[in-house]
Amino acid sequence: MNSLSFQPWLPDQGDGHYRNPVLQADYSDPDIIRHGDDFFLISSSFTCTPGIPVLHSRDLVNWSLINHAVRTLPEASYDQVRPGCGIWAPSLRFHDGLFWIFFPMPDEGIYVIHARHPAEQWSEPRLLQAAKGWIDPCPFWDEDGKAYLVHAYANSRAGKRDKIHVRPMAPDCSRLLGEGEIVIDAPEHPYLEGPKVHRLNGWYYIMAPGGGVPQGWQVCFRSRSIWGPYEQRIVLERGATGINGPHQGALVDLPNGEWWFAHFQDQGAFGRVMHLQPVEWRDEWPFIGADQDGNGVGEPVDRWRKPNVGDQWAPCAPASSDEFEAARMGLQWQWQANHSPDWADLAGRPGWLVLKALPAAGRELRLLPHFLGQKFPARGFQVETLLDFSGLQMGGMALLGVVGGPSAAALGVRLCSGGAELVHWVGGEIRSLGLLAGHSLVLAVEVSASAECRFRWQSPGLEANTVPEPFLVREGGWMGARVGLCCVGEDRDAGSACFDFFRFKPPGLAT
Predict the structure, then answer these.
(1) What is the distance between the alpha carbons of residues 74 and 71, in angstroms, rounded to a whole number?
(2) Could you read off the pLDDT of 387-405 as tens digits, one per residue?
(3) What is the pTM of this model?
(4) Could you give the CA distance from residue 207 to residue 232 in angstroms, rounded to a whole number?
(5) Which residues are catalytic?
(6) Residue range 403-416: average pLDDT?
(7) 7: confidence class by pLDDT, cuts 50, 70, 90
(8) Cα separations (Å) of 291 from 205, 260, 298, 426?
(9) Candidates 1.10.940.10, 3.20.20.10, 1.10.287.4070, 2.60.120.200; CATH matching 334-505
(10) Which CATH number fits domain 17-305: 2.115.10.20, 2.50.20.10, 3.30.390.30, 1.20.1560.10?
(11) Are 86 and 369 in contact (CB under 8 A)?
């Protein structure tokens, strides 16, 4: 086994340019702010915990995952997986010495948290306003000291859409001060949502995506008053490029006067990945990307010069491979719902991840809270892990799996009356592939650029074998697919499983 960590995707080209996407992973609904010379990014996380990943960069291209802002979701119903629910598009702002995150849970309401620094512990979520269907909140503090909450609506919950609402808010974020009003009603931009508010040169700008997730565009609204009336302009669209749905994200400035826009692109099973676009100001409107077809509307770029931040920063990307040598879980890992700290242990057997076998209660793998997964980090990769299944008890099962929206698949070991058997779990069916000797096994899965997954296994000293049937994984519940580990049992006395490493590699390599 090669212990050298493989980084599946690096955007920094090392020649003063970068390639898009700058985050080839499911960091959907990104919001970014600059604080001094540092950039901080957050994204939606739905039912996964810990939630709201926090990333750091010094150049908007190279990002590191430094924290999660929410440990568990603030509702007991999220002890179970609820596809499509949980934490939707959040906003990050700095005000009065604190970093603030406003995040929506569309079935519950708008929540607020704060911290002295994004890498430190965040406050417990506080419900600012109970509401059904309020989504994508953005706080705004004006120059006169007044504060506002700006948000959109989810038609699935609120029965209305394509509207942006402004509500007066206490400057300390303790409460809303009135109903406010809908300031933008734009059915010509279906599924208008994700508003982000800025004030520049006497203009109030509301940046908002329209057109829906797979094929949308970015709209800019501007007014001399927060209450409108607002002019509008499409400022970024797909055009003749291959970048579908370039919209929803963050407008951010550099100390030298440069402006940039980060947005997502829906890549199906690979999630909503993040692109970075240059911004110019023309007639006090933001022009995003490049005018590649001459119609005056910006289109996304594939490659561009890096933001001018002075120093050159070492190429990096969020962590992926894990040797399980740290005292705590790597930040790349998330459970599928609220979790308990005793589900995983790194101390009992140093250098190994020990997962407790927890009941599956007849559910599919995609609905198990204790599936420990991480985002797909590239368009094509493979993952290998070494499993020690000697700690399993009768009925216990240890798995390497891929989880998507409609279904999931996994390969692993189950302890039965005849001994340890190799099992292939697809959807709701678990199929035996025969008995195994020994107590350890290398499990692997290769994911192609078309999201086709092929599982294989290798017993010590023997040739590798591949499961003949491929599995096509799909996105679901607004999330890309995930790859990870799980240990399940028929009851709580099914033992545990130990994993020595979790290594990403390029596709096409032998085990």
Answers:
(1) 9
(2) 999 999 999 999 999 999 8
(3) 0.97
(4) 10
(5) 29, 193
(6) 95
(7) low
(8) 22, 15, 5, 46
(9) 2.60.120.200
(10) 2.115.10.20
(11) no
